[in-house]
């Protein structure tokens, strides 16, 4: 399999090459310093795996990741979060195959590569601990008032503003105010992100509000 490595960090490049070459000695490795360049090279080389270092200048642009996946539909994407594990939700939503960080062991990166062969999800143990910390030890919804929690639950049930207003005995305008306040508190800008932050399921909307 042909592997794309996107990084502008020479040390990371050397380390990841060593892991790949010990596990897949016959696999071609193409190193670029941006996702854009990896996309350009996809015209001549189809990639089965991308290993993305979050330190690359355009690594956090999930639209570019989607573009790469469109050109390389079978490609698994492994992301090194470095020490920026706060971006794990962003990449989980983007549908990447594996996540690891600077604290991950080489064996865990190798395991991520094995999962990449079958395009199945893998998260290293240290990133898993961060996920559990946010979900269990420090639930973010404690920053919301009881009323805001209730509003959030109704919004995640895909109730319209008017439906929420009727249920809570307020106005549609007030619901909009609460929604903006909830989003601001939890640093999100859409219901999908809100569901992830609160560890809740977003109900699929069958018809528009």
Structural commentary:
The chain is elongated and about 65 Å long. It has about 210 residues and is α/β, with parallel strands linked by helices. The termini are far apart. It has two domains: about 5-135, Rossmann fold; about 140-195, Arc Repressor Mutant, subunit A (Orthogonal Bundle). Mean pLDDT is about 90; it is low at about 205-209. Strands 2-1-3-4-5-6 form a six-stranded parallel beta sheet. The protein has helices spanning about 10-25, 35-40, 60-70, 90-95, 105-120, 125-135, 145-155, 160-170, 170-185, 190-195, and strands at about 5, 30, 50-55, 75-80, 100, 120-125. Helices cover about 50% and strands about 10% of the residues. Pfam families: GerE.
Short overview:
The protein has 209 residues and is α/β, with parallel strands linked by helices. The protein has 10 helices and 6 strands; from the N terminus they run E-H-E-H-E-H-E-H-E-H-E-H-H-H-H-H. The protein has 2 domains: 3-135, 3-Layer(aba) Sandwich (Rossmann fold); 140-197, Winged helix-like DNA-binding domain superfamily/Winged helix DNA-binding domain (Arc Repressor Mutant, subunit A).
């Amino acid at each position: 399999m042909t592997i794309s490595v996107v990084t502008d960090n020479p040390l990371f490049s050397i380390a990841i090459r060593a892991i790949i070459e010990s596990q897949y000695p016959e696999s071609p490795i193409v190193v670029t310093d941006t996702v854009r360049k990896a996309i350009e090279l996809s015209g001549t080389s189809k990639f089965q795996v991308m290993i993305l270092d979050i330190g690359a200048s355009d690594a956090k642009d999930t639209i570019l990741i989607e573009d790469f996946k469109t050109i390389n539909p079978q490609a698994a994407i492994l992301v090194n979060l470095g020490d920026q594990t706060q971006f794990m939700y962003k990449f989980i939503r983007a549908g990447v195959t594996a996540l690891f960080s600077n604290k991950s062991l080489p064996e865990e990166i190798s395991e991520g590569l094995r999962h990449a062969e079958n395009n199945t999800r893998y998260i290293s143990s240290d990133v898993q601990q961060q996920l559990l910390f946010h979900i269990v030890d420090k639930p973010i919804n404690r920053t919301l008032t009881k009323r805001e929690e209730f509003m959030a639950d109704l919004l995640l049930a895909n109730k319209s503003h008017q439906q929420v207003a009727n249920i809570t005995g307020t106005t549609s305008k007030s619901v909009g105010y609460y929604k903006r306040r909830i989003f601001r508190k939890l640093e999100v800008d859409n219901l999908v992100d809100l569901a992830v932050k609160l560890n809740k399921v977003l109900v699929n909307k069958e018809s528009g509000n």
